[in-house]
């Protein structure tokens, strides 16, 4: 519904020269026309805790004193009472009041759990312009009134939204001006604008018209409002090997509940995303209708939050070179919601980037370890060395580094203590086996496998420990 926006005197835009008060009054008096702006917004449910009497449908059909007047035995009142008694309290329903009792004594009874919400049964119209949030549709009812005693003719009306970055035309009747607005009359129109920017906005309304004396006049009026952010999206990115986890926390900054219809993460080309959700209770009944009519997620007003978790993996068609040289952009969110009475909103976040990590030119990892390892019997550990740079690297040496704390190792290299590896081409990998032997039964660790670049004389970080179980023969 409509709600008044400004008073009789609209504000001037920021930075514009404002005439002194006498000149403002003179400017207002010299114009026959004036704009009035009202925002179109939906009403709200307003609980009335002070309401002692419950709303009753009978109040709609009969006046207040129809059944409590001085002569309630009149035929018209008796007929109306009998009709409403049968309509609102059928014979097959349990009676909660005394038959024929239409007094207010039963208004304190709660016939339904909804009555405890203290809703008066009526919708409340907005009493102020209210807050405007990013992603909503600004809808305004504009009326241009002729308050003079003369007729205004050939009225060319223009309405624009001015932001810090751009000026958007909403209405322009210059090519087909309003023929005339009589004395005391008005011309009304509605404009809409999808709000896509934060900060100060100005609704600029102008009219070019012929006054009663034939003079061509120009009327500008400015109406200011501020656009706020309805929600914030905080993200965390964690990478474990080839899998990236993205956590998004959405917080509601508005004064009304938000019902999230859609929170979709659109990954970039080199990623595939899957949303991770908690397991449903076994008692939850799944159905096709339930999947189609999925309930929206509620984020409560004034700081309510909801968390989403996504698993990202590299696309199957991406090569090693593309992944190594690919962008750090993971993707972006598409978010749509509705308020208590269904007013829609939509936002798209900026691109979300992965956590910057120090890039390694080579990567050494264990590929395969025998499932059964016997005491003092050699076994092979299959390793893979990957060149993640765009140039040829090597040669390398692989050896078992001694323990830092001089702890005794129970898994040792069998044979040559250093294994020499050849050159590795750009973005290529080589697999090789390292012969080892265990000297103690039980759960043991293979630790200290280290890579050394001969030409660069560079020592890389040791491979992570590998746990194995050694069995006796």
TrEMBL record:
InterPro entries: TRAPPC13, TRAPPC13_C, TRAPPC13_M, TRAPPC13_N. Residues 371-467 form the Trafficking protein particle complex subunit 13 C-terminal domain. It holds the Pfam family TRAPPC13_C. Residues 10-23 have a biased composition (Pro residues). Residues 31-227 form the Trafficking protein particle complex subunit 13 N-terminal domain. GO terms for cellular component: TRAPPIII protein complex. Signal peptide: none annotated. Transmembrane segments: none annotated. PANTHER family: TRAFFICKING PROTEIN PARTICLE COMPLEX SUBUNIT 13. This is Trafficking protein particle complex subunit 13.
